[in-house]
Amino acid sequence: MNTKRTLFLLLFFCSSSLFAQQDNYTFFKLIVSNADNKIMLVKWGGSWEIPGTRYNIPSSVAAFVDTLALEHGITVHQKKLSGLFTFKYDNRPALTIMQYYTAQYNSGKLKVPESCEDIGWFTVKEAMAIIPYPEMKRIVEKITGNPKKLWGAAVKKSGNNEVDFTEDFYELN
């Protein structure tokens, strides 16, 4: 085996093991719309936001989105990937990938998940008034304002909750 190839393989496996030890992960957010064109929000930690969770179970994406909806007492249809966003947090060494999905409410009665304090349906305008996270507001506005597109962006969030879109929105389709 030649020396360059050996060196390349050694560097590849060393860097792979380093990246595997970093805590990067995928986080799902689900924007559910009902027939009244309202979106579902949950109150978590005293703040209203789009429901979501870390994707850390061995299931398909479709099954995971269904499970996320069921945790809120509902079923959904017309599931669609609507945004892929990279988040860099000052206090974490690796990126977080935020996948935003949209879906239409199908059936069921909203139920407050164990980790949340409340749940409800809100117009996008109402949601913008109560969601405290500027990056989430911008993402929700972009996705709900342009529902046929798949969006991407890169966001940096500092320890004092300062938000910077290091790459502004761009179309992925």
Describe the structure.
By secondary structure, the protein is an alpha+beta fold. 28% of the residues lie in helices and 41% in strands. It has one domain (19-171): Nucleoside Triphosphate Pyrophosphohydrolase (Alpha-Beta Complex), CATH 3.90.79.10. The chain contains 4 helices and 9 strands. It has a 6-stranded mixed sheet with strand order 4-1-6-5-8-9. A 3-stranded antiparallel sheet has the order 3-2-7. Strand 2 and strand 3 form a beta hairpin.
Question: What is this structure, in a nutshell?
Answer:
This protein has 173 residues and is α+β, with helices and mostly antiparallel strands.
Give the topology, please.
Layout: H1 3-21, E1 25-33, E2 39-44, E3 47-49, E4 52-54, H2 61-70, E5 74-89, E6 96-108, E7 118-122, H3 124-130, H4 134-145, E8 151-157, E9 163-171
CATH architecture assignment? Alpha-Beta Complex
N-C termini distance: 42 Å
The backbone outline, from C-alpha atoms, is globular
Whole-number radius of gyration?
Answer: 19 Å
The tally of domains stands at 1
Major sheet summary line = 6 strands, mixed
For the record, what is the CATH homologous superfamily label? Nucleoside Triphosphate Pyrophosphohydrolase
Helical segment count: 4
Sequence of strands across the biggest β-sheet = 4-1-6-5-8-9
CATH topology: Nucleoside Triphosphate Pyrophosphohydrolase
Number of strands: 9
- Helix and strand pattern: HEEEEHEEEHHEE
Overall average residue pLDDT: 89
Q: Which CATH class is shown?
A: Alpha Beta
Which blocks of ≥5 consecutive residues have pLDDT under 50? 6-21
Residues in β-strands, percent? 35-45%
Secondary-structure-based class equals: alpha+beta
> Considering DSSP H and I runs of 4 or more, what fraction of the residues is helical?
25-40%
